[in-house]
């Protein structure tokens, strides 16, 4: 008999997935009673993590398995993290909107107030003209000629 080479390729006949073991059937979703959920939520509100002895005692009191309580707490912590992240993001966006509003108010107030006269500008006509230039004012129209802006 000829020795098989380690590089010999065994070929399957038929569909490539045909020889695989069939997938395991998923366990149906466990539904908990309102009383169980209420007690789990109360405990979660007080304590986000349970020690194994606490978990076993809670499972026994609620007529659940240790694994069910453990899984419920893991899922609840995930939900809690997502909710708190969404709340923090909403608060951050609200703070940003408030800051923009305050900046706009401050800018509008700065436009309404006359600029204080700088003593250096009072004695230099070019600096005096620059100090009083307000390109954002409505009566000034800015035109650009060959890349140089001028106020008309």
From TrEMBL:
One of its GO terms (biological process) is animal organ development. Residues 23-83 form the Homeobox domain. This is TLX3 protein. One of its GO terms (molecular function) is DNA-binding transcription factor activity, RNA polymerase II-specific. The lineage of its organism: Eukaryota, Metazoa, Chordata, Craniata, Vertebrata. Residues 25-84 bind DNA. Keywords: Developmental protein, DNA-binding, Homeobox, Nucleus. The keyword DNA-binding applies. Seems to be involved in the development of cranial sensory innervation from peripheral ganglia. InterPro entries: HD, HD_metazoa, Homeobox_CS, Homeodomain-like_sf, TLX1/2/3. The gene is Tlx3_1. Coiled coil: none annotated. GO terms for cellular component: nucleus. It is found in: Nucleus.
